[in-house]
Amino acid sequence: GIGEKIAATIISEIGEIDRFSHPKKSVAFAGLDPSVFESGRFKGTKNHITKRGSARLRRMLYTAVRCSIRDSRKKKTTDETIARNKRLRAFYDLKREEGKPYRVAIIACANKLLHWIYAMLKTKTPFQETI
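^ thats the sequence. predicted structure below, dont judge the formating
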């Protein structure tokens, strides 16, 4: 799901990975962290992402997730979905089974993808598909 252009944009927007001491800080930099709307005893149920960080990074992660979870075949011969990234597709399917709307599930996958990117950049290892 991540090609050369998307990878270059993500790397350039993140910059030096050592700026972030925790993957959640990179998620906050991308603006993918949930906002909390609470006041007194009121607990908000419809929380949005903060969008306080890099819009370009957020857009590239969103695009990468959409490309990763879609079917990798040109013609559908069966109803089985063969995703480009099976781990991310399994996580997406789990979120959809939990009753999450499409965009909420996509943002959750983008959050997970950014955690994976953070781990790969910190340990300097390539991505390995295990499923």
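Residues 102-123 form the longest helix (22 residues).
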